[in-house]
Amino acid sequence: MIEFLQIMIIPFMACLVLTGIHAYLGFHVIERQVIFVDLALAQIAVLGASCAILFGFEMESIQGYMISLTFTVIGAGLFALTRFKKQKIPHEAIIGIVYVVSSALMLIVLSYSGEGTEHIRQSLLGNILLVSPKEVGRILIIYSLMGVIHFVFRKQFYLISQNPEKAFEQGLNVRGWDFLFYVTFAFVVTSSVKIAGVLLVFSFLVIPAVCAMILADNLRVRLILGWSIGTVGSIIGMIVSYSFDLPTGASVVCVFGVMLLLISVISWKMR
Questions:
Q1: For residue 69, what are the domain limits?
Q2: Radius of gyration, alpha carbons of the chain
Q3: Tell me: the pLDDT tens digits for 50-63?
Q4: What is the total count of domains within the chain?
Q5: Closest by Cα among 195, 179, 200, 205 to 75
Q6: For residue 178, what is the domain's CATH number?
Q7: CB of 191 closer than 8 Å to CB of 209
Q8: What is the rounded CA–CA span in Å between residue 54 and residue 75?
Q9: DSSP assignment, residue 201?
Q10: Which residues of 48-64 are buried (b: 16+ CB within 10 A; e: fewer)?
């Protein structure tokens, strides 16, 4: 037990921080019906990190982070600019295209790297076991700043997410607010992917939020449930990973999947 705590305490703290911001953002993503925006921005962040490697910078370096963040902010601007009052082409289709093209470009860029295969694996699964207290502190500061922005402008963000037609009618600069939303999203995703990988970041964003939406209708209750489910899933996933010597990120993702299945079945039975 002591050995387990020594190994897992810092990764668990990282999971708590990830859950705090991603479970909240997940509700916006689901309301906006842009489920794969996280995957797309995460893939753009990985593409930026891959270019940084090609330029001779380490993924963990400040230069690598800034290049990755720059790519992601550009992606955020693209998603904001392609949001129209009347969408002739579904926004999700544009997001999917960006994701596919970014993935292809990443493979091309990493083909010039001798460690391309390892970088692809790390971008998908991350290595949350190796996260340091310093990294946890850094992402906590970044996420807290993004959280303050979302708290201050919560009315605008929720109105655009839940009722974009009304936002347009009220004269809100929807593209401008979308850009701010996606830029904050970009900061979160760029920092998250670096330590957790694309798959785990997507799971933290969507699965706890979906579980909470199945169980409750009230927004505050959903937030509490989302954070609780993310925390419990992280604990169980790490116990499974430690007990059976499995990859931690993949274990947490699979536990989230099982939890969603169980909650769906229980909710269906109760109704």
A1: 2-270
A2: 18
A3: 898 888 887 778 89
A4: 1
A5: 179
A6: 1.10.3470.10
A7: no
A8: 20
A9: H
A10: bbbbbbeeebebeeeeb
